[in-house]
Amino acid sequence: METRRRSVVKAIIWIAMGLAVMTVVGLIATGSAAIGGALAVVNTAIGLTLYVIYERIWAGISWGRHG
What is the pTM of this model? Predict the structure, then answer.
C-alpha cells in the first residue's frame, strides 16, 4: 500500500501534464489564452480531486495484489 503523500505527489505530476495539454487544447479551441487557461484550470481542479479519491479507493482494494 502506498502512502497518502505518494498518492498526492503522483496526482500532482499527472495533473500538471494534463494542465499543460488542456491549456494548449483550450487555446486552439477558443482562440483565447485566458479562456483556454481558465478551462484548463477548472479541468485540472476537478481532475486532481477525482484522481486522489480514485487512488485512495484503489489503495484499499486488495484484489489483484500479490504479497
Answer: 0.61
pLDDT, tens digit, 9 for 90 and up, residues 19-55:
889 899 999 999 998 898 899 899 888 988 998 899 9
Residue 36: CB atoms within 10 A of its CB come to: 19
Cβ neighbours of residue 58 under 8 Å, at least 6 residues apart? none
Locate 49 and state its grid cell. Answer: 480531486
- Cite the DSSP H helix spans in the chain: 4-30, 33-59
DSSP letter for 31, please.
S
Distance CA 13, CA 3 (A): 16
